[in-house]
Amino acid sequence: MNTPIKPVWLSPHVVALRWGVHKRTVLRAIASGQLPALRVNGRVLRVSETDAAMFYARSCVTCASCVQTKRDAA
Q: What is the pLDDT of residue 16?
């Protein structure tokens, strides 16, 4: 019998700890629409573990020169 896999939801703080960045960096990615998030009870944000992993894989979150380049482009 196949049991459906439930998604794991993470807080922006936990995502930041996993990535080794400040929580504000994660919140900026959410605010810009680059990182999908779910708002629970109108206040609490949660990020799917899968979405966080995909975003991290396609972006250079921890590289200061990449972050600066992205800011200059905006």
A: 95
